[in-house]
Request: fold
Amino acid sequence: MIWDTGDAAQPTVVMGIVNVTPDSFSDGGRFERVDAAVQHGLTLAAQGAHLVDVGGESTRPGAAPVNADEEMARVLPVVRELAAAGVKVSIDTRNAVTAEHAVAAGAVVVNDVTGFGDPAMRAVTAAAAVAAVVNHMPTDDPRTMQAHAHYHDVVAEVRAFFVRRVLECREAGINDIVVDPGIGFGKTTAHNLELLNQLHRYADLGCPVLVGVSRKRFIGELAGDVPPAERGPGSVAAALAAVDRGARIVRVHDVAEHVQALRLWHAITRT
Reply:
């Protein structure tokens, strides 16, 4: 099963990140070439990643959009080679046509930062019988999402979004659904902290919870204006806090460090 690690000593699913982009906030350009991206994905899998999430468009605040043709040129060779090597691949995209070609190339999860609002994305995912990661973002455009970071009760409003969108996904025929509160996607640092602290309020949705906090801006802010490359310790701390509050999957850049920390955390909490 996709969301089963097969390891009782470390049941948290670790999703490694491969950004095939020139402009991602943390590692843009490092894995822009197909061979570099494939090798990085293989390395993450060897370090203990249960899935590798391949994306060809940066969704950092203010990032320029990428058309589907360019996105597919970036990601499809990487998806194809990793899947052929036996790696479980997730495609990180907001374009239904990219998702369709990626699952044909071997991806087993569609991770849509816009939360499956597009009926075409729901139809593609249902037809392929692959899993869906429903991310919360208050607008469909990452360029302006921080301008929409206004909530009366962020935890309740994100939950209401999930209730509605999960129902739409199930009605479309998607059976395997994961919810992601979208840390940093149209959220302030205060919103991020509140969402992480209240993850247990999503337990009754009947879907595993995924959290992506790795190297994000709020970690740098809380740690004292730390740049992305130096946010590893804070990322691990935030991921462990999320798992403690009910997260089943963590999406991370630094796989080896998270796998080690999770194994220790689970050993301690079992005693």
